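Example record for the data management plan.
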Amino acid sequence: MSVTVFAHSVAAPHKGRHAVETLIAQLLFWGGALSIVVVLSGLVLYAARGGFHDRAIELHRVANRAGQAHPREVFVSLSEVARGLDAHPMCPNAVIALGLTLLLMTPVLGVAVAIAGFLAARDYRYAIIATIVFALLVLGMMMAGRIE
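Corresponding structural encoding:
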């Protein structure tokens, strides 16, 4: 009888872990696909407005502007991306920046979903590991200083 209980308790977290892994894989796939669609939409919008014949953003000048304002075509915070999306006409670079932001935030969302999924599956070891990873991701974003 005790062998059956032991076998059941080992199998239950494994089954729950597999369901969580499947959910996270789908989230990462669809998050990546959505971000690609958004970036491509921004590129099409950029091309439709003659952007490939316009002047290019000189990135070495943007990187070397310590203490100076950055060009309006460069988005360095979520609030700037939101302003670019709200502008009339909508800024194509903001659409591209939104797509890249979605691409970067998809794994963070995956870790958050993993925490909830592992807790629901009562797999506390993996829930603790996912919580530590999530805390490190949030700490990294806070240290970057641009959560606005």
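Summary line stored alongside the record: Residues 2-48 form the longest helix (47 residues).
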